[in-house]
Amino acid sequence: MPEDPGEMTRRRLLRDSVRGACLIGTGASAVLLAKGARAEEMVWQIDPHKCVACNTCETSCVLTPSAVKCAHNFAMCGYCKLCFGYYNTAMSDPVNAGAEKQLCPTNAITRTKISDVAYSYTIDESLCIGCGLCVEGCTQNANGSLHLQIRHDRCVNCNQCAIAEACPADAVIRVPASRPYILKQPGHEGEHS
To answer: What is the pLDDT along the chain (193 residues), one digit of tens a residue?
Structure first.
């Protein structure tokens, strides 16, 4: 006996409704799982153990001046009279020189005498352009207490960081926003806080 055409429509309606409810339920479950498993927000940062101080941070950042600034790990600093990150040591008698023999092109580093043989070096980040000259000098000739970091109060956290794309050392990486700064410490490559 043939089925009633109206009955067929009700069956299709019921079947399609059940399928729709299943799809909605599956979709809602997926959304809830995605929210629960959502990865922590990530930000760009420079791994100071990979950085080669190549000047890319200054010239490739979408911001002018760059969101990259020199950071100083005072715990590593030797408080040297002749700081290779402060003075242009290629010049003759750099210690007995004026501002013209300073390595930083914007005079962002202040030198303060703390004893007859020790000096403190402070970075004025508002003057720093992220060129890396001081970092290069400190890393190649001293203990590397100066290093570059992306400052997140300035960085716009681009989806694809222009500095990361241009960095020849792959030193610009994504790190969790809850621990945005990688501290430079001897023997602790890749750790961040």
So the answer is: 555 555 556 666 667 666 666 556 666 555 555 555 567 899 999 999 999 999 999 999 999 999 999 999 988 888 888 888 998 877 766 566 566 778 899 999 999 999 988 899 999 999 999 999 999 999 888 888 999 999 999 999 999 999 999 999 999 999 999 999 998 877 654 445 4
Q: Which candidate, 151, 144, 128, places its Cα nearest to that of 73?
A: 144
> Residue 53 class from Cβ within 10 Å (0-12 exposed, 13-18 middle, 19+ buried)?
buried
Domain boundaries, the chain: 1-38, 42-176
pTM exceeds 0.85: no
Q: How many CB atoms lie within 10 A of CB 25?
A: 10
C-alpha angle 51/52/58, rounded to 5°? 85
125: how many CB neighbours lie within 10 A of its CB? Answer: 16
Whether 132 contacts 58, CB under 8 Å: yes
Q: What span, in angstroms and rounded, lies between the C-alpha atoms of 61 and 56? A: 8
Q: 98 has which bridge partners?
A: none
Own/partner contacts of 187-192, CB < 8 Å, gap of 24 or more, are: 189/47, 189/49, 190/47, 190/49, 192/45, 192/47
